Amino acid sequence: MTDHISAEQLRLLIERVERLEEEKKGISDDIKDVYAEAKSTGFDVKTMREVVKLRKMEKHHRDEADILLETYKQALGI
Asked: What pTM was computed for the model?
């Protein structure tokens, strides 16, 4: 009896993961569409991706990254 329940539970978990993977693919496709739209209207997608990345960071992490970048640029004479 327990083997049947375990197999059923495993099947249900795998089906949930499969559904979520499909949703994730759909969302990923939607994001690509938004970037394509932005590019077609003249926005720089690379810069937009960087802004999205920066907005995810907490301010102190963003400040630290800026300081490190400046330090490295100065060290390389850029």
From this structure: 0.72
